[in-house]
Design goal:
Keywords: Activator, DNA-binding, Transcription, Transcription regulation. InterPro entries: AraC-bd, Homeodomain-like_sf, HTH_AraC, HTH_AraC-typ_CS, RmlC_Cupin_sf, Tscrpt_reg_AraC-type_HTH. This is AraC family transcriptional regulator. Pfam families: AraC_binding, HTH_18. The chain is α+β, with helices and mostly antiparallel strands. The protein folds into two domains: about 130 residues, Jelly Rolls (Sandwich), CATH 2.60.120.280; about 100 residues, Arc Repressor Mutant, subunit A (Orthogonal Bundle). It has ten helices and seven strands. Strands 1, 2, 3, 4, 5, 6 and 7 form a seven-stranded antiparallel beta sheet that branches. β2 and β3 form a beta hairpin. α8 packs across α9. The longest helix has 18 residues. The two termini are about 30 Å apart.
Length: about 270
């Protein structure tokens, strides 16, 4: 998580790539020490338990268990772990990043990639031998092939829209309608409806729905009961929350938490 040459968790990359796996205490310590930073290598950072939130530019990302975020070389970012977090990170030499995504994105991690990360984490980074090169090629191919996940939330730049967005993030349970939000921020409903997708890629209602669901992931990772999460995130009933969650993530909140190693807490 920390930049090359920063806290010492990642020494300078001597070969094409370098990986680290953290337990709960290490992950929280490294995230606090790193703060907002950037490094010359590309970074793939994932969770095996719990949840990460990552900030890159105007976008807020949620990285649940079984997923990873790709951060291109030179991209400024900050990382915050949630719940009982275990995670890993891999730095990839800038020369190998050609052909990899040019923008940050969330990827669903394959079993093959996870096993490759574990193998690289056990290598001695002070030396590099040619027999490692085939695995490097496999890792690069896996990153290119992994499917994207809808776990990013772009913040609008217009000050009026940004005011609304930050208010919704502070209190996703606020049930004011689109016209009420427009009046509160000092713009017309038509302007709100037109500008929100222009600046975020999502209509206002879709943006609010995603904001609620990403906040729900944080609450679930922290171990809150599903009913409490539903109410905290603005859903009138638990069943409505479960339905919305399933439409996006393809599973119930309880099953998601179980896959993250937090079964039995909700």
């Amino acid at each position: 998580m920390s930049p090359t040459g920063g806290s010492g968790t990642f020494p300078a990359v001597q070969g094409p790539l370098l990986a680290r796996i953290w337990d709960k205490s290490q992950a929280s310590r490294e995230a606090r020490a790193a703060g907002v930073h950037q490094h010359r290598e590309g970074q793939l950072c994932g969770a095996t338990e719990g949840l990460l939130t990552v900030h890159t530019g105007d976008t807020r990302w949620a990285v649940p268990a079984l997923h990873a975020i790709w951060i291109p070389p030179g991209q400024e970012h900050g990382i915050d772990p949630h719940g009982q977090f275990d995670g890993w990170a891999m730095l990839i030499n800038e020369a190998l990043c050609q052909g990899l995504p040019a923008e940050p994105c969330i990827l669903r991690v394959s079993g093959l990639l996870m096993e490759a990360v574990k193998r690289v984490a056990g290598w001695d980074e002070r030396t590099w031998t040619p027999d490692r090169d085939p695995l490097v090629a496999v890792i690069a191919a896996e990153i290119r092939a992994l499917p994207d996940a809808p776990l990013g939330l772009v913040m609008p730049r217009d000050p009026r829209l940004a005011r609304i967005a930050h208010a919704l993030l502070r209190d996703p349970a606020d049930r004011r309608g689109q016209a009420e939000w427009a009046d509160w921020a000092g713009l017309s409903p038509r302007t709100l409806s037109r500008r929100f997708p222009q600046e975020t890629g999502l209509g206002f209602q879709a943006w609010r729905q995603r904001a609620r669901l990403l906040r729900a992931l944080e609450h679930l990772a922290a171990g809150l009961p599903v009913t409490t999460v539903a109410l905290e995130c603005g859903y009138q009933t638990t069943s409505a929350f479960i339905e919305a969650f399933g439409q996006v993530f393809g599973m119930t909140p309880g099953r998601w938490r179980g896959q993250g190693g937090l079964a039995g807490q909700g």
